[in-house]
Design goal:
- The structure is a homodimer.
- Chain A is globular.
- In chain A, α10 crosses α11 and α11 crosses α12.
- Chain A has one domain: Aldolase class I (TIM Barrel).
- With about 300 residues, chain A is an alpha/beta fold.
- The longest helix of chain A has 21 residues.
- Chain A has an eight-stranded parallel beta barrel, surrounded by seven helices.
- Chains A and B meet through α4 of A and α4 of B.
């Protein structure tokens, strides 16, 4: 199943002009593929998709598919402000060899439900690839209600949702509400690394993971414990991640994972300006959090 | 003074592929120029800037400057997700003949104050044009605190702010807080048409106006009454706008003003998809609101 298991969302290393460094990207992708993640979520929010041109996004997809050699499927994010641009990006992703699509309702003028529905219908109908709804209110400022998700789940090719995980005590009720409203074969997965262990224990099928894009081995350990329903082992492993989760919450996973990639020597890339690299004091805190993970 | 008086923000008519219709744009600009607005705010949020390519934005600026013939200055919005793109747009605006710049901190990954500061410093320093800070939390999801505004006001070329107007009872304290914190020659203007009459009565120098981009004559009547401090006349005129303001609040000024342009026969353009034209029932309500204005 494409939209199940651990999906690793790497950063997309690029130079200050927005040119993707496919060699550094390949280093991250090979780590994920060799660790055995279920899929790679290319060009997600962590992968800076909204800051890259159409041609660079196409280059990144082709490089990823080439590097992973069909062993690990690539799910490509294709969000854009305009519907015609998102359609073009979906077709590029298909032509470039992506196995699936991830679509967020990126907005400038805030969108209403009908606009999002028609946007998704147009984009999902533009290729034959399966499409996952990317519900990420922190960046899109749009939240999917269950009624809209249910309507979208009735459209051809729309087969999954990447939903923001809630704190563990709220997850069983939330997951049940989604599960009972959506078709049985509709895949419900979660993002927001620090809350995802609880979401998997509650029944989530997929972890769309920032940390797995950089450190797939410990992320897989955590995912497997949660998938097995082993609460004690999940909590034990999760404690090693907690300092990193605290920094994700405080400074954003996007900024922190870029700093972590620099610290681990896996990429020299910084985020696209206006987003700034972490201040030296915060970088030291990321180093400390990585140290706690190393003892896992 | 460039950032004072009534600034008219027209829609940017474009075809479904995002090609600007410069003839329809010229119709709107001539109306504004002939009515005697202080400036034209081209490619604002109302002008769909985030949905247009760099080359189309450049075309729109050149057409506007050509059409207005230097009689009415053009303030061009240059917002972009990437700092280098915003710099390129600022240089295009200068080369195209714009008199000033309007810069919003457009975001996907939410930005922090230091990132916005450095973004503005880089863009403001890229041309010799005066720049107005575009504080529009409804679309950018970033709010400028007074401390950040004060820092930005100390940079070369940054000379004005376009601030979201608050309801009338809150405006005197808000305007005084901004006025006392910012340099004496820093121009404080307001947007959010339905609240702006109160903001001008409170001392605001500029009305960055959606309605003036389509109906500059009644907008000027309202602006002049408020600038003269004539509360009774301001309220009398504003009552004719109130049905339109109610629709702006409910459906967004962006959608409503596009429908109004269609109804008045001034443009056949609809917003770029995913944004949809108003439903027929809502369009009828816009017609009724325009009827109330016609009796002004």
């Amino acid at each position: 199943m494409l939209f199940g298991g651990l999906s690793a969302f790497p950063i997309t290393p690029a130079d200050p002009n927005g040119r993707v460094n496919v060699d550094e990207l390949a280093v991250l992708l090979r780590r994920a593929g060799e660790a055995g993640v279920a899929s790679v979520g290319l060009l997600g929010s962590t992968g800076s998709y909204m800051y890259l041109t159409r041609s660079e996004r196409r280059r990144a997809i082709e490089a990823a598919v080439d590097c992973l050699g069909g062993g690990t499927p690539v799910i490509a994010s294709i969000g854009a402000l305009r519907t015609d641009d998102a359609i073009a990006l979906a077709r590029d992703a298909q032509a470039g060899g992506a196995a699936g699509l991830l679509l967020a309702p990126v907005s400038y003028t805030p969108l209403n439900d009908e606009e999002v529905f028609q946007h998704f219908a147009a984009v999902a109908g533009a290729t034959g690839l399966p499409l996952c709804i990317y519900d990420n209110p922190g960046t899109t400022h749009f939240s999917f209600g269950i009624e809209l998700l249910t309507r979208l789940a009735g459209l051809p090719n729309i087969v999954a949702v990447k939903s923001p995980a809630l704190p563990a005590p709220d997850m069983p009720a939330r997951h049940q509400a989604l599960r009972s409203a959506l078709p049985d074969d509709f895949a419900i997965g979660y993002a927001g690394d620090w809350n995802v262990p609880g979401a998997i224990l509650a029944g989530g099928l997929c972890w769309y993971s920032v940390v797995a894009g950089l450190m797939p081995v410990p992320a897989l350990k955590l995912m497997k414990a949660a998938q097995a329903g082993n609460v004690a082992e999940t909590e034990r492993i999760n404690r090693h991640f907690e300092p990193l989760w605290a920094l994700f919450r405080e400074l954003s996973s996007y900024r922190v994972i870029h700093a972590a990639a620099n610290i681990l020597g896996l990429s020299s890339a910084v985020p696209p300006q206006p987003i700034l690299p972490l201040a030296p004091d915060d970088r030291v805190r990321v180093e400390a959090a990585l140290g706690v993970m190393a003892s896992l």
